[in-house]
């Protein structure tokens, strides 16, 4: 009984490690011809997942580069609207996540970014034991699945937020265009009335 209780306690501890993940999600602007960088202190062996999406600005493209503490590049894309990445930190230290709008000379870009910093390999030492039993294997598989679900949820929330911003921006433009059309129609109607009145007054005098 004590052995089984110990296994369940171990399983609960592994599940609790999922809650140790750090989830960062934010939206920011990148000015034309500029680069914005975010920094995160990450330990060796930590699994890191991230996603990004450009919601407004120009052709909705951005350059993204991720550097390790030794300036080693672990991820790089150019002119992408959205994307996801995942890696295991090869060294402890501050990692740099940079977003470049160098391709634009006049239009700022609005970027939504989500970063999930998972558990370190030190927290997984017990999972690497040669004597791991089926229960622990199942819990480890479940934990990895939950981590994947968390990453996917963050990505979908980010996409939903970007689509909502696009929809609101489109609705605002449609509203203003409708107002401009209404004003133009009223002005045209007034001009026609004034022209006809002037025309008939001229004929009456003749």
CATH topology: Jelly Rolls
**CATH 4th-level superfamily:** GOLD domain
Q: What would you say the CATH architecture is?
A: Sandwich
N-C termini distance = 116 Å
Class by SSE composition: alpha+beta
How many β-strands, per DSSP?
8
How many structural domains does the protein architecture include?
1
Radius of gyration: 29 Å
Shape: elongated
What's the story with the biggest beta sheet? Answer: 4 strands, antiparallel
Mean pLDDT: 79
Total helices: the number is: 2
Give the CATH class. Answer: Mainly Beta
**Strands side by side in the biggest sheet:** 1-8-3-6
Report the oligomer.
Answer: single chain
The share of residues in helices is 40-55%
pLDDT below 50 for ≥5 consecutive residues: which ranges? 1-11, 13-20
- H/E element sequence: HEEEEEEEEH
Q: Approximately what portion of the residues adopt beta-strand conformation?
A: 25-35%
